[in-house]
Amino acid sequence: MSLERPDSVDDGAGERTPDELEALLGDLVVDRDDHLNAPGFVIRPDTVQETLSILKEQAGYDHLSVVSAQEYENRYESIYHLKKFDDPTQEVSVVVPADKDDPVSESAEPVFRTADWHEREAYDLIGIEYDDHPDLRRILLPETWQGHPLSMDYDQDRPQIASLPEHANPLQEHHKDAESDTMFLNIGPHHPATHGVLHLKTVLDGEQVVDVEPDIGYLHRSEEQMAQSGTYRHQIMPYPDRWDYISAGLLNEWAYARAAEDLADIEVPEYAQVIRTMGAEMCRIAAHMLALATFALDINGDFTATFMYAINDRERVQNLLEDLTGQRLMFNYFRLGGVVWDLPEPRDEFFSKTRDFLDHLPESVEEYHNLITSNEIFQMRTIDTGILPPEVAKNYGATGPVARGSGVDYDLRRDDPYGYYDELDWDVITEDGCDNFSRLLVRMREVEESAKIIEQCVDLLEDWPEDERNIQANVPRTLRPDDDTEIYRAVEGAKGELGIYIRADGTDKPARFKIRSPCFSNLQTLPEMANGEYIPDVVAALGSLDIVLGEVDR
């Protein structure tokens, strides 16, 4: 087994009981709240920074996973979901109610930089204002939008006018003198290097980037609200495939399945867990192959060789996933309690095709190293560019290959085990370069680890007794979790921590469904990587993040 942390860091606090945490926070706690995954502490809206600082610095909760917010009949509420990078099974929820008539709460941004975008989204969609926030503006909707779409009094029939304001240089007027020469530059939203409809508001001083601001929201599709309109049992599962729509379908489905199954206390059969694990790692390889292909295209424009080679290997994985699920992208293969059907028949043919792909993979990876990582131009463009120090990555809530490329040893498959991962032999990959090159190396090495996992799953499935191939638990036709039951669960997606927060209201549909997109938090780090660099380095840094705007915007 290779699932133990090689150099586990003790934060000095150890694991504390909920009562010990309450004693540590003292008078800051005004009430307790029960969440299925974590103890919840209710605090006053003017004590957010003090509370989070104590939990971060004295109790070791250094990872703000997500901020979820909602409106009730008598209050607004923000929930800060905290974990530890060293042990994400230790979780705390900080619940912050705000006045119904004046929904103002203190911002967490001075404590956790990642709260910047999360609180802006809560303000944009729900209407909670965060005092002391450095830049409290809408993030998905235009500034001219009237009302907040997730508030109870929102009038969806109200006419809206989305103006097109001129972009102003956020630093100073365009000018040229002996000391500086500033210029405002739009990159995107329609540009081949933005990997979707992303607009980068960029300010140059000469040829150096002095400020870059990602402008998102062009692909917002109300995925959370559509999930809130569907039933747990049947109607939500088709949606996750469409978040990261390009290659992470089963990983997305697993995020919802894990949250809903824990919410409804559903135990998945072991056989189905092995199938899920195999399918998820196939999706991870497909996602990393696409990241590799597009990154090479961004850096040295290599379409004929690298891009097409990687896409060819991705197609091989897609063929296996099509055999398994019947679809190539929108799989809809997971079900609460298991999977929709067993492996394709004849089983031996499926196993043979899978092993053929795995046998071919090492040669392909060696080719990619020859074409890319050994390429002098590629090295010059990526080594020591897009630097993201580990503590900065943590502060922004970066996860997945972006964080592991900065030496952050964090992987939920090992650190918060689910599926069949803790029964298999594989390694968590990290690189210490903290640059664009390291993030690529992590993905390439993770492809090899995924292959190891798939091979072990195939070995298990080949020998599994026929009369024990149980693909689904006995799940009630209608699920109605108890009123005010709350849970946050996450899986290790191809791009990082993909989490789901659900609040139940006693019906067969969620009262609140919040998606924690790894791309959303990872994209926040772009200014840290890009400022002081040149325009080509911004393109390289953006490509190294491997974002999908459908998941960023949701």
From TrEMBL:
Catalytic activity line of the entry: a quinone + NADH + 5 H(+)(in) = a quinol + NAD(+) + 4 H(+)(out)
Subcellular location: Cell membrane
InterPro entries: NADH_Q_OxRdtase_suD, NADH_quin_OxRdtase_su_C/D-like, NADH_UbQ_OxRdtase_30kDa_su, NADH_UbQ_OxRdtase_CS, NDH1_su_D/H, NiFe-Hase_large
Biased composition (Basic and acidic residues): 1-19
Entry GO MF terms: NAD binding; NADH dehydrogenase (ubiquinone) activity; oxidoreductase activity, acting on NAD(P)H; quinone binding
Main location per the UniProt record: membrane
Domain of life where this protein originates: Archaea
Topological category with respect to the lipid bilayer: Peripheral membrane protein
Boundaries of every NADH:ubiquinone oxidoreductase 30kDa subunit domain copy: 42-158
Region (Disordered): 1-20
Subunit structure: NDH-1 is composed of 13 different subunits. Subunits NuoB, CD, E, F, and G constitute the peripheral sector of the complex.
Family in the record: In the C-terminal section; belongs to the complex I 49 kDa subunit family.
NCBIfam families, alphabetized: PRK06075.1
Protein name: NADH-ubiquinone oxidoreductase chain 49kDa
Organism: Halorubrum lacusprofundi (strain ATCC 49239 / DSM 5036 / JCM 8891 / ACAM 34)
